[in-house]
Design a protein that fits this description.
By secondary structure, the protein is an alpha/beta fold. It has helices at residues 18-27, 39-53, 105-114, 130-136, 173-187, 199-210, 252-259, 282-290, 311-318, 334-342, 346-351, 355-365, 375-389, 398-408, 415-432, 441-467, 470-479, and strands at 7-11, 32-36, 58-61, 66-67, 74-78, 90-93, 120-125, 141-144, 151-153, 166-169, 191-193, 216-219, 233-236, 240-242, 247-249, 269-273, 299-301, 327-329, 487-489, 494-497, 500-504.
Length: 505
């Protein structure tokens, strides 16, 4: 590796400007690609890159969205969707500590080991990854960045007494909704941010908070991955989360990742507890404030040299153990579960004649489980798609796609119904992003985007109506303004403030 093409690891806590640095470095090159951990974050970074370079030079690639102009030179992607066969001068991978994650970690590990820019490669993440970088990439240059502001423990606070510009963090939709409802009744309302929201809904909710329409945000740990918000205080309503496998206490580094959203640039931030959250002990507080955590000693890994001679050969190659320390073979992955169940599908097995068909079955097995209904239902859906696309010219029938989308193209229903429809439409958005899965894939992409946007707007409106008291919000917002509130009394004695009925006389 030449000196010019060195791999650099930029490590440090939140609010150190790592992602900003990577974007600036990428834009300083003639071409580049950045892999990000969330679709929400990819869209945010894409918008920044477009504002700097223009739409014609910028691409956005996620599992569900592909905007790739013919002359694109800068590619903003989710880590899973990075096109690794693309030669670009600069490559960055963000939040590399996700490599320890039991579900997605093996993808991050693969990118750490193999994704390279021919001019510069930058790996961004927590200092906890320092030993792994030294072990896996001994020639990499490691630099540390300090947090630009202080993060301090502020102690427990009642939800109704939280300071303005607070984000309350919970780990279930029910808890998020209950807290948002409490804040609506007592403090005018709250915006809601959860990982399951579409970028459009999330951005609309964040805009309510950022504009000051509401002073509070209720969120899951989706806010912990680099989303930029003007938060002064992070209050944990819980310290236990379901990680996809079991309920467990948050690790100190996870607490810090979320708490670190408090304070931005040089403005200091605070964190603490609220609601029923157990108090943080002194050791955890000291570690979060001092950014001192146990290092990551092993990351998830999957063999990338897969064999497509048969389904059995593919499974055997997936079971290949790593040949170096620090790597743990991923176990229990959804795509491997679907693949093993494919061995029981006699009709599918009977149609497989060549390695290319095995490859297409494997691609169907990798359909993400957006719906989160049950393992069996996900397996059934993925294998149904596999049966249609197993032959090189096989496509999912348009009649089925149309019928499924038609069922989702409606905006009536409560929050749970709208969120479920959004999760379902993501499946078809993903399928439509595969030109070799659907006939007229471009048309289906446009249709699924239209339905997703319609559902996103309906969900934003439903969240706003349920969790924001416009009258109280207008009154509280007006109290901080220097100009007078617009108030009046009607002939019937009804008092209005900023155009909202406040109370009868």
């Amino acid at each position: 590796m030449t000196a010019r093409a060195r791999t650099k690891a930029v490590l440090g806590p939140t609010n150190t400007g790592k992602t900003y640095l990577a974007i600036e470095r990428m834009l300083g090159h003639a071409s580049g690609m950045i892999g990000l951990p969330l679709r929400l974050l990819a869209r945010e970074v894409y918008d920044r890159v477009v504002s700097a370079k223009g739409e014609a030079l910028c691409a956005l690639i996620t599992g569900e969205e592909k905007i790739v102009p013919e002359g694109a030179r800068y590619f903003v992607c989710t880590v899973e969707a990075m096109p690794l066969d693309l030669a670009v001068e600069f490559v960055a991978i963000d939040e590399i500590q996700v490599a320890r994650d039991l579900d997605r970690g093996h993808v991050f590990t693969d990118r750490i080991l193999h994704a390279r820019g021919f001019g510069e490669t930058m790996l961004l993440g927590s200092d906890t990854m320092r030993p792994m970088i030294k072990k896996l990439l001994p020639d990499a240059e490691i630099t540390h960045r300090e947090r630009m502001s202080t993060l301090a423990y502020g102690g427990p606070k009642k939800i109704t007494k939280l300071p303005k510009r607070s984000a309350v963090v919970a780990f279930s939709a029910d808890e998020v909704y209950a807290i948002a409802e409490l804040l609506r009744r007592h403090r005018g309302g709250a915006a809601v941010v959860m990982g399951a929201l579409s970028p459009r809904t999330r951005n609309a909710q964040v805009a309510l908070y950022q504009s000051g329409d509401v002073e509070f945000l209720v969120a899951t740990d989706a806010i912990g991955m680099g989303l930029n918000l003007d938060v002064d205080h992070v209050a944990f309503a819980s310290r236990r989360k379901f990680d996809g496998h079991s309920w467990r206490d948050l690790r100190p580094d996870e607490i810090a990742q979320i708490a670190g959203r408090a304070g931005r640039f040089t403005r200091d931030g605070q964190f603490g507890e609220t609601g029923e959250c157990e108090p943080f002990d002194e050791e955890i507080v000291e570690r979060v404030e001092g950014h001192e955590f146990e290092t990551i000693e092993a990351v998830q890994w999957r063999n990338r040299e897969l064999k497509f001679g048969s389904l059995e050969a593919l499974i055997a190659s997936l079971e290949t153990p790593p040949n170096r320390s620090g790597l743990l073979r991923v176990r229990g992955a959804d795509d491997e579960l679907v693949l093993r169940r494919a061995l029981d599908d006699a009709e599918l097995l009977d149609r497989i004649r060549a390695p290319e068909q095995v490859r297409r079955v494997w691609e169907a097995c990798q359909l993400p489980d957006f719906r989160k209904l049950s393992k069996d239902e996900h397996v059934q859906l993925a294998l149904r798609i596999a049966n249609y696309i197993v032959t090189p010219k096989g496509r999912v029938p348009s009649q089925w796609v149309s019928a499924e989308i038609e069922k989702l193209d409606r905006t009536a229903g409560d929050l749970d119904v709208l969120q479920a429809r959004l999760a379902h439409i993501r499946t078809w958005t993903y399928a439509a992003s595969r030109a070799d899965w659907l006939e007229d894939a471009d048309d289906w992409r446009a249709k699924t985007r239209e339905v997703e946007d319609k559902l996103s707007d309906a969900l934003h409106e439903a969240l706003t109506q349920r969790f924001i008291d416009r009258r109280t919000s207008a009154l509280l917002k007006g109290l901080k303004r220097e100009d007078a509130l617009l108030a009046g009394i009607s002939e019937d004695g009804e008092v209005t403030v900023e155009g909202h009925f406040r109370w009868p006389s």
